[in-house]
Amino acid sequence: MDKRDPFRHNVLTSGHRACSGCGEAMAARMVTDLIGPDAIYVNATGCLQVFTTHNEQSAWQAPWIHSVFANAAAVASGIEAALRARGKDTPVVVQAGDGGTFDIGLQCLSGMIERGHDVLFVCYDNEAYMNTGVQRSSSTPHAVRTTTSPSGRLSQGKHHLKKDVISIIAAHHPPYAATATVAYFPDLKAKVEKAMSMKGPRFLQVLSPCPLGWEHDSALSVTVSRLAVETGLFPLLELEHGELTGVMRLAVQKPVEDYLRLQGRFKHLFGTKEGAVELRHLQALADARIRRYGLLEAETEWDTERSSQVSRHGRGGYVIAQRGMGRELDNEL
Amino acid sequence: MKKLLEGSQAVAEAVRLCRPQVVAAYPITPQTHIIERLAQHVADGELEAEFINAESEFGAASLVLGAVVGGTRAFTATASQGLLLMTEVLYNIAGMRLPVVMVCANRAIGAPINIFSDHQDSMALRDAGWIQLYVESNQEAVDSVIQAYRIAEACELPVMLCMDGFFLTHTFEPVELPTQTAVDEYLPAFHFDRTLDPGQPMTLGGGSEPDNYQEFRMAQHDAMENAVTVVEAFDTSFGEQFGRVYNGLVQAYRLEGAQTVLLGLGSLMGAVRDVVDKLRDQGQLVGALRLRCFRPFPAQTLVQQLGVTQRIIVLEKAFSAGAGGIVATELRAALQQAGMTTAVESVIGGLGGRDLTPEVIEAIFHGAQLDDNGASCRFVPHEYNPVE
Amino acid sequence: MSSKLAVAPGSSKAYQTGDWRTQQPFYRDKWPPCSQVCPASEDIQGWLALASDRQWEAAWRKLSERNPFPATMGRICYHPCESACNRKHLDSAVNIHAMERYLGDLAIAQGWQHKGLKKISQSQRIAVVGAGPAGLTCAFQLARNGYPVTIFDAQAEPGGTLYNGIPDYRLPKSVLASEIDAILALGIELHLNTPVGMKISTGDLGDEFDAIFLAIGTQQPRRYQGSDISNHSVMGGIDFLHRLNRGEQIMLPKQVAVVGGGNTAIDVARCARRMGAEVSVVCAQDPHGSHHHKQGTEMPASLQEVVEAETEGVIFLYRTGVRRLVRSGEHLSGVEVARVDQVHDRHGDFNPLLFEGTEQFVPAGLVIFAIGQEVDWSGLESLEEATQADGVWIGGDAAGKPKMAAAAVDSGFQAAMSILAVLKGESPVTDAHKKAQITFKQMQLHYYPKQTRHEGEACEQRLDGFDEIVKGLADSDAEHEAGRCLSCGVCFECDNCWHFCPDAAVIKKTGSYEIDYDYCKGCGICAQECPCGHIDMEAVTE
User: In 10 A of CB B282, how many CB atoms?
Assistant: First the structure.
């Protein structure tokens, strides 16, 4: 095991081939260390799978399997069934991108939830098929330019809206479904821990910026993810059994332009009449989401300001103990 | 003691005796009775397993893949469209060298959609890296399911057990079911080295590059070729324990001095043997050979068995459009490689569930009044289709 | 089975992605703006961090390393640190002033003693002339380093201007005395009532001691041209304050005019108010304001003092200078003043010119002139031009333009370090403030929770007597106020860099972080998201 760091295991360790500043690598590193190495991870095809298991090397320090693009939820369900039959309670976790969740993976995911498998499904949503070269997915937001939804003389980028997958998941009434993102780590942590404390099918959609595909500076991945939330474009929600049980309130609503200007994938909207219409549309979409989920009025202490705050002498909070493995703790304090 | 059992029921009993802990399937005619029976077993506590109703065959194959790497014996069954739908996963299972056993209730492939039996489905998967065994009877289906688990787990290769849809699945035959004790003796408890376990973390299904991919395939090919021996050996030991053998790879019938041999797969061979008897009674030197193990292709055994004859007719319920018979082509290649010049005729019939009656088979032996479709293969003509 | 079907966990570590980067992060402590502008160069962030962890004694010791007068400074310093504090861009500056006072008062209450770095054991001896903040601080630093020091002071009480020039309501005598006692307790000899040049000659000083530090302050008031200094209607500002601080009873007429624009003038005015007089301040310079600040005509007194004085009812006349004193028989009836044209002349000297026809009469029975001070070299003429080569150091107000008390403290520190270097025969260590500065633009202020600034309780009644106007911070507030420090440029272990690194290339140790340069791809996220600007990104050079 990786003994460099006494405060976490690095279930996803160094040496992987993610692009510099990759939001998905960041999210997966966070999530898997919050869950710990005592779990079985099933990965769909995509960036995460490719950049972590290249050239007969693996950045995973926990049991991990990749099958095909669309079936991670089904493979995980099979593993979970086998564990149950063997009387074992090792957690099973799926990791998939938006392709393996919203589109090609939706069938297996739906089956997994409908049948009530005890699996946590984590979608790292970078809003396009990034691994194959930034082609649009149903998760790609409105007016984004991708290689298969380019802007051009007759087009302002993707015509259709971002698929509301959390509502699709919610319609299955799973015990828990939530959205999160990397900028709000304590929030992500709370959600992962909550999900891990429950049984049955659980779902997390983690917005994961992609410097390459979203065309922003590699240093801005966290900043961009924060703005996605602060503008209302990506609401942070919790749903239990299909009912909305919590939202992160926006302490201040930021205009969508603050978010869009940082990313080249929206660049074509600035400076043209047609583009301006789409900018207004995007603002209207943000406003609509805010209205729909009550992101400004929600009576909760859980808001974008509080959730973003740091404190002195942070103590991490990742899983570091090994359960019943008969091995030394990696904690070298 | 023999019981009169529908083929599907018999297979379900055999599966139950093998103690899979996960059964996952999606219904498709003509496999449905198999999985329904298993569901009932589970519901009645006769089979201690998780029965998972998959959302599609693609899901079903994935579920059993997961179950095996999760550390249990698993089972699924499908046919036709379902088999094709799970193709990606079947290659994946084989490439990862997982011991999965699946029954394919052979059925024609659409378009045009057709629910009746032929071998196009499993033949379409012949390159996937699965061992394929074709059974002739319900008894053989039962026995071969049990053998299949042993073969799969010993070789770390998946096994597809092919049984004709309707002809076997929905037909009642007397079947001897082994006892649980006997099966437990023959088939050891499930063990798989690469079970996913936090105590022994490993990465499965990682990426491969030009400089290491071929070696995976070579290892697979080696394992498949070695499986010829394993298939034979486990059939032999099965015979020793249970008293029934199928000669492992091929079953010859009255090949002594035969000048013409008809080679085929599956349940049609019963009718073929009747025709051989009739023609032998008339003084014709004919024989039959049933190919049980199609993958790995037992070239050596086939060459050895067929070496003495002058004319081989391969009667197939599948073909490769634009190329001709599949088994015929592979047989020709095997014979040529052995330096033999025996003529091989490729006949395609029985597609889409069309009956191959003794009359038709006899006509095939005679080689008369058949359409000439050029050199690649001949199709059994329509006039011979028995219409009531 | 082929081992390649299963790949070993963590085997990716064989591939060192550090090769990819074109820029790389460095953890580098910065010198926050508060410390940058502090005349005493205190490590303010350092002692606030300790205070926020409730390590009060450690915080006091850290503070005292540069400034042994926290209780004093926490009352009289004009806290430029707070004006520079980056936190003002978030909500309001940290109350560094009150925190300093809190620690100083706590030390006094708890009786904490300074610990020397070494016991006094050196044979070389140093003489300090003047027991003001510069002299005492110099002695403190030398004694800490194990050198015996003797201080000579002409006055009956130590403290210099701190004692003589600052009224009780700003600095209670007991507080000052406690801090001076704590300094002296290191083993410093103090000879009061001993003016050097008179009671002891400079020659003797040179013989007996290996180094001399002159910190005699500016005891000589500038005199108003055209006044009779013996007249009881006219007084010097410093003289007034000295007499008051020594406990003398001074009778004031109903109206007093104070001439001057510096802190001394304000001190005088506010004292006079407490003694019941109506006070007007005649100031040749302009009031505070950015325009006047840019032109350089702003009055030198601190804005806070002016505001306090105005609250207390002092009247201010700006851009106004004295033309003549108006007598009525033996007494002063008032001062004739006029508008000032320019404050400084061609040479830059303070030399106001008055506009004819703008005269105004300010009634007053006493006019106090607080128009500046100069060094009084009487008895020490031989040392006026002396240098370090002669073994003589000059510091504090005596060394240049009078500045804040904290500057005097720093002057004493610098002199001590220089003396140490010379006595040890080493080259002097220049102050290692090579750390870079840090502005709020290099920080991510949104990461810090907003918190109201804590203040000491203000007393309603001001003019009843000479009690302190503002109390110190409540105990429960001190920890929180210290916690408001943003720790500009200095890591406080928020874990952001560690959480956000996508490559697990930030390693967390107990109390610090480390970059694993074998894997760091140089994305820059750690530097971007560091709340306090601790991380620098630099281009990779071959």
Answer: 8
